[in-house]
Amino acid sequence: MKIILLGPPGAGKGTIAKALMQLDGSVQISTGDILRAAIAAGAELGKQVEAAMAAGDLVTDDLIMGIMEQRLQEEDCQQGYLLDGFPRTIPQAEALKTMFAKLGEKLDCALELDIPRDVIIDRLTTRRTCTNCGEIYNVKFKPPKVEGICDVCGSAIVQRDDETEEAIENRLQVYNQQTAPLVEFYRDEGLLVSVPTSELETVMAAIKERLQD
Ligand code: AMP
């Protein structure tokens, strides 16, 4: 499967990607995870993006395209991939389209998780993330067994810098202005599948129906 996951921050793209990944060997590629790993490693890339990310702003299209052009040609992408958090702007979507045309590849679909704003805000403010493996928790619905410690790898679990109320407001505004137009872009391309939920079974059914077309 080659699928783009669309939807505001907190819609459940990462969780859905991880679940789909286990089904057919596709890899999840999260640009947010790549950038956070660069910050954690103290890499030059991390220094370039740290301030924009903490404020909830997007980093530049050129920087993201440089990362993704390389990443999508790596060996593990041959089985397919789930793009989580990319593309995020119309120029990124156009650049991806050009890249696919060059490589002779094609997308299966762009899956939109169309989740109401109040649900999103509640999810983001209660979300916690493992600093090491990226496992996602929720203080209300999925707390770790030991407070503050990741069940999977034993590292610290934190609230992300960009999950303060102020940064969340900004990220939602950035989403509406810069990323939401991608829904129409992929509808026009005939690739949009939209579901009003992040419930796995419903999402799976919508993808299966699409893949059978
Ligand atoms: P995410 O984990 O997908 O919510 O991404 C976290 C942050 O990383 C975003 O708020 C942006 O600052 C940056 N980011 C991730 N993906 C992109 C992208 N495709 N284009 C621009 N900025 C991005």
Q: Got a strand count? A: 8
Largest sheet descriptor: 5 strands, parallel
CATH architectural category of the domain at 2-114 and 178-212 = 3-Layer(aba) Sandwich
**Low-confidence residue ranges:** none
CATH homologous superfamily assignment of the domain at 2-114 and 178-212: P-loop containing nucleotide triphosphate hydrolases
How far apart lie the N and C ends?
Answer: 14 Å
- Estimate the helix proportion, in percent: 40-55%
Helix count?
9
Structural class, by secondary structure, is alpha/beta
Rg on CA atoms, Å = 17 Å
- Along the chain, the helix and strand elements come as EHEHHHEHEHEEEHHEH
- Apparent shape: globular
Mean pLDDT: 93
What strand order characterises the main sheet? Answer: 2-3-1-4-8
Quote the CATH topology of the domain at 2-114 and 178-212. Rossmann fold
> What is the name of the CATH class of the domain at 2-114 and 178-212?
Alpha Beta
Provide structural commentary.
The protein has 213 residues and is an alpha/beta fold. The protein has a domain of 148 residues: P-loop containing nucleotide triphosphate hydrolases (Rossmann fold). Helix content is 49%, strand content 15%. The protein has nine helices and eight strands. The strands form two sheets. It has a five-stranded parallel sheet with strand order 2-3-1-4-8, sandwiched between helices. Strand 5 and strand 6 form a beta hairpin. Helix 4 runs parallel beside helix 5. The two termini are 14 Å apart. The mean pLDDT is 93. Adenosine monophosphate binds next to helix 2 and helix 3. The site of adenosine monophosphate has 18 residues, from helix 2 and helix 3.
